[in-house]
């Protein structure tokens, strides 16, 4: 893993990304691209979306290569701030070699955690994973075999607040940027959600908005659906109502019992969650109007 | 079309199908297969499903080739009746060369109707289509170009009963076996539904149970789903709650507006409906516990 | 259809598109976006791809809204020419209200032709279709029912050159921009292909590069594949070796005979071809190194 | 794992399966089902396929529940032998609680091995895995963490025969029933293949028959395909020409370099291989005419 990471950071030592939302008007791309050209930055990839050319909103993701970006960071931030002001932009400028720090939360079902750690070890998820938190001890050995600290914080309906306080303290201590709920079966309080707004990614084991809430596979079986699904979304205070990032499905048939739906579902849950996390750490997602724009 | 049909009927002049449900117990297959062997019938295709070997239910679909089946029809029916009695079977024995008679109901959106008629003309839907009924005149020319009678019966919330009486009279007159709601935008009364129980196939333009009811695409857009769907089901008196026959999906993204979802949806609606109809006329469907077994 | 078209042209009367390829270097986007800003054009959608930031190639598609574009057309062309020179660009500037003129070539299998004409009539394929050419008379009635001229030019191995001369004369006469081979079962000569380079779109009834050439379904059956496919590509002089635009697949199983593969295949052939044509007329395709970039 | 296995064996202690191929004729199902009824066996699942009712071949898979099957094993085998004789059947009668013994062969790419072992540990692949053999030492720790012996047998072009002799000795010693090539990058000799005919399952990293042989992803990239695939098949002496068991695909686009195709490919390779193995150990596969019938 270390080798993958170092090679990636070396390959991307001059790579930056801009993610911008603002009211649409002529001249935005010209201003941004002129700014980049002025700093000898070459645009490598760019995607844009406008809700409506007149009076709508404008969104862009730009990935660029800029020589000696390390030394120019403060300057770039400062100068872009002026452009951002004049176009009323919400924006982030990130540097690809600064890896995100992700905390994974898990309960007893480990398939999503496993997929995340294996993809991470392969070098297919470029982020740091400073810790895994669980309300059960089951994942301890597996997590520690990757050299990642595992923290067991028993959590349930009755001790939610205390458990979250412990969690928040750890998240702060480790400078966590993104929380991945890898089948973490506890509801988070509004305080927690607010502290990591648009930074908590959940995997729900149904094709939302079908089967919001508990036991989606049992209810899918009951309804006799021919296709099951999984949905990854940002967590908000409305249960399973946050902005959807990615969904996928799998065919089932009358022979499949609830257990079979669960087995089949695991295969899509894990890949949907990994895709959502990948897009998040690649700065490909903008949340807009409780939906996601995926560049 | 006539040539396709005649060739098909000739090819299948000795072909029969048994569709059976009953409480499971040892010896069912032996009894049925012995019965067929006694009549020199050769089993061509057979699929079986049991919910539970002890105290569960048993389902089977058997397709067989039986020399001189035409002359043996009454005998087969009569003799099978005895076996059916002894195992408490619900059953149908059908003869493949006796084509089903389908009535198609349509409103203003014609893509499903078109697909049905084109597939029918290709010889890919082996049934008779004695009439098309619509509450709008739009489809008239297209339907009549296939030599199929088109009946315009204005129907809406206010005249539902009278309209249905006209419809029922026509359905009886034409000996209709199956009613296909090809985006027919009227709700049917319990009287109508009861008269054609498990014989009315609808296409709903969402991935049920998500977006039951009106305007599913607008609601899918609002929710920001990444995948849209279509569902074909038998009509019951609970709106969009009948046994699901088939579903399919299509990826969409943030660029897709409601109109785009509709356009993309049409492509899956039409193919899902055609598959459902095909399975119905091929005697591949058994309804069980508000679900379908598809053999 | 006329209403769809007029509404579309009205909605897009100020809409333009730039499609650019050139050696990559810093400042390209800045120059192009400054040019558009100078003409009060607002960029609505933009996608970019670079093969390699250093010494690689750069590709961009920009869709923009420019007030009074009609009166500015010559000016835009002329001024952009200067930018294009300085960056060694290959480029096209197109105006969305100027619809492409497509000729459809067809033989005896009509499913792709049907899909194209129905999608066109729905308003889902915004182009003009001045004529359909066939080496068989079968499609005549269907084509003419849309008010489109149908020309029967018998073509086979022996009269290829004369047939093509007739075809080329018609294509020129009708100012055809794009030729759609909707299961046209004749090979085109190098002369013909050269005259419409990157403007002839074919649908091949296999998942290329599997089953290049004749009888792909029979060969797929022979090999026992579990998935069949269809491929749309630009025609070059190497049979079925041109740049692939789009592919799709469908599951099959051991019960499917060659005829069933053909039936299933038709469903994907038609949708793959329609998508490829749509992307072409929306200026979403750049051919590069015998591959396609699809924006 | 042990708990899963014991529970499975207990649940299936009376479960048997018949897999039969023979020339088609009337009366086969009657004879087989009568035989089962005579032994108080209840047919739980049954699927049948005939290539042609007249002069064709007949295939059936029957799963049944038979009280005290353990004590009846020799009797069932002996009595069925008589029926088999009279219909010229090829057949296997297997008992579900007798788990298959699989050996996994692997080289340096470990994603397929990982998936197999994790699915196995989950209880989703009901078989024994007495050993893993590799021509590289990389997988040692991972394999041994599951308590499975790992044997490193360096193998390459030059020592193929000696390496295979060591392997064959181990396979015999451990009574191996099935060999899974989980990205094992060595070609097997005809002697080896013959010894385990229709018992060696390979995963090829392309959508066969496209890209037979080495470096399929590099060649897929070169050709500019829009969809990549993976194929699981039984190994024969014709490279990548054995009976296809399962295939699956994944969309790619012009941004995907060879490395990206490999990453995306791993996701389908592993699930395709697991499905193929599952069907094999569930006795769902009959090889016929270099194709597979999957029940």
Automatic annotation (TrEMBL), chains A, B, C, D:
Coiled-coil residue spans: none
UniProt-listed Gene3D superfamilies: 3.30.70.260, Formyl transferase, N-terminal domain
Enzyme class: hydrolase
Membership in a protein family: Belongs to the PurU family.
Gene: purU
Name of the protein this chain belongs to: Formyltetrahydrofolate deformylase
GO molecular function, one term: formyltetrahydrofolate deformylase activity
Presence of the UniProt keyword Hydrolase in the record: yes
Function, in words: Catalyzes the hydrolysis of 10-formyltetrahydrofolate (formyl-FH4) to formate and tetrahydrofolate (FH4).
Alphabetical keyword list: Hydrolase, One-carbon metabolism, Purine biosynthesis
UniProt pathway: Purine metabolism; IMP biosynthesis via de novo pathway; formate from 10-formyl-5,6,7,8-tetrahydrofolate: step 1/1
Enzyme Commission identifier(s): 3.5.1.10
Catalytic residues identified in the record: 240
Classification via SUPFAM superfamilies: ACT-like, Formyltransferase
Swiss-Prot/TrEMBL GO biological process terms: 'de novo' IMP biosynthetic process; one-carbon metabolic process
């Amino acid at each position: 893993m270390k080798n993958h990471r170092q090679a990636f950071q070396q390959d991307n030592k001059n790579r930056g990304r801009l993610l911008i939302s603002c009211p649409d008007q002529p001249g935005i791309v010209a201003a941004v691209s002129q700014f980049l050209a002025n700093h000898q930055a070459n645009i490598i990839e760019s995607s844009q979306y406008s809700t409506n050319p007149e009076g709508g909103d404008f969104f862009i993701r730009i990935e660029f290569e800029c020589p000696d970006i390390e030394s120019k960071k403060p300057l770039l931030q400062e100068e872009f701030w002026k452009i951002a002001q004049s176009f009323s932009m919400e924006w982030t400028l990130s540097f690809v070699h600064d890896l995100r720090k992700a905390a994974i939360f898990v309960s007893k079902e480990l398939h999503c955690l496993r997929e995340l750690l294996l993809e991470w070890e392969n070098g297919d998820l470029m982020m740091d994973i400073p810790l895994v938190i669980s309300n059960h001890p089951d994942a301890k050995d597996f997590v520690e075999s990757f050299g990642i600290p595992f923290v067991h914080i028993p959590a349930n309906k009755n001790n939610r607040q205390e458990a979250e306080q412990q969690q928040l303290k750890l998240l702060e201590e480790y400078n966590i940027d993104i929380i991945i709920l890898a089948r973490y079966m506890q509801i988070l309080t509004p305080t927690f959600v607010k502290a990591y707004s648009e930074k908590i990614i959940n995997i729900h084991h149904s094709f939302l908005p079908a089967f919001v809430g508990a036991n989606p596979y049992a209810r899918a079986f009951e309804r006799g659906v021919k296709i099951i699904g999984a949905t990854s979304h940002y967590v908000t205070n409305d249960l399973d109502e946050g902005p959807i990032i990615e969904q996928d499905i799998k065919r089932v048939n009358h022979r499949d019992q609830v257990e079979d739906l669960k087995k089949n579902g695991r295969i899509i849950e894990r890949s949907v969650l990994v895709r959502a996390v990948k897009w998040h750490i690649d700065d490909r997602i903008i949340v807009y109007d409780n939906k996601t724009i995926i560049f």
